[in-house]
Design goal:
With 258 residues, the chain is of the alpha/beta class. It contains eleven helices and ten strands. The strands form two sheets. It has a six-stranded mixed β-sheet, with helices on both faces. The chain has a four-stranded mixed β-sheet with strand order 4-6-8-9. The longest helix has 20 residues.
């Protein structure tokens, strides 16, 4: 089933949904894509999707950023409302009960990079470029870019990228931790799909616990994070799929996770 908007989706494998943004010329994150992203998350939640791959149909662009034409013609109240709508869609994706993978070819700039950073992981083609150039407009990133980028690359690198408004090439993005996997140009979608299928076959509660405990490492003091880890592993043993995983290992077979 496919949405009729500028964000469409299709089944790729069991538990894997592939979504494609297609708003010419550059996937500006205006109201059409915002609505499409919200519809996508609704669909993924309804299906119980395990892994979502987000990509683009436009050559040379993952997403070029917020809709500057839209912002240039609105007043302060409308600017706030637009920002809230964009942030809402990005945070819905970030908070969804699934693994999300951004498959990036071309440029991911401004809100486009913020959208990619809201995904659980990023797979990059070798010719992709990344940046948060809002200072050139007298602005700063407004969809959690100032918060997510330092968590990925560190304070100094984040200030460098945002204050200079430069575009970061894919090899540097991989080296500093902005992207997780680097593949040949044009291969991001295929590589992301392969990764998605691998993740979808694993224990969903365990994958969720991995993400939650890693996030806790950034948000909590060490001792609190460690206690959180202990609670998570105990919960997986008592209520998750650990018994099936352990039994399958002892019986020398593949586990049958739900």
């Amino acid at each position: 089933m496919t949405d009729a908007s500028v964000v469409t989706w299709e089944d790729a494998a069991h538990g894997v949904l592939v979504a494609t943004m297609d708003r010419k010329p550059a996937n500006a994150l205006g109201p059409p894509i915002i609505d499409g992203l919200n519809a996508l998350v609704d669909e993924a939640e309804q299906r119980g999707t395990r892994v979502l791959v987000l990509t683009s149909a436009i050559p040379g662009f993952f997403a070029a950023g917020a809709d500057i034409k839209h912002m240039g013609g609105i007043d302060a109240d409308s600017f706030r409302a637009y920002g809230n709508r964009l942030r809402g869609a990005v945070e819905r994706l970030a908070g969804a009960d699934l693994v999300s993978i951004a498959a990036v070819e071309g440029v991911a700039l401004g809100g486009g990079l913020e959208l990619a950073m809201a995904c659980t992981m990023r797979v990059s083609g070798a010719e992709a470029k990344y940046g948060l150039p809002e200072v050139r407009l007298g602005l700063i990133p407004g969809a959690a870019g100032t918060q997510r980028l330092p968590r990925l690359v560190g304070r100094g690198r984040a200030i460098d990228i945002m204050a200079t408004a430069r575009q970061v090439p894919a090899d540097e993005a991989k080296a500093i931790g902005l992207v997780d996997r680097l593949v040949t140009a044009g291969g991001a979608r295929e590589a992301a799909l392969q990764l998605a299928e691998e993740l979808a076959a694993l224990s969903r509660p365990a994958i969720t616990a991995v993400i939650n405990t890693v996030d806790a490492a950034f948000d909590l003091p060490f001792a609190e994070g460690q206690r959180y880890e202990i609670d998570e592993i105990q919960g997986l043993f008592e209520h998750g799929e650990a018994r099936e995983g352990l039994t399958a290992f002892l019986e020398k077979r593949s586990p049958k996770f739900a």
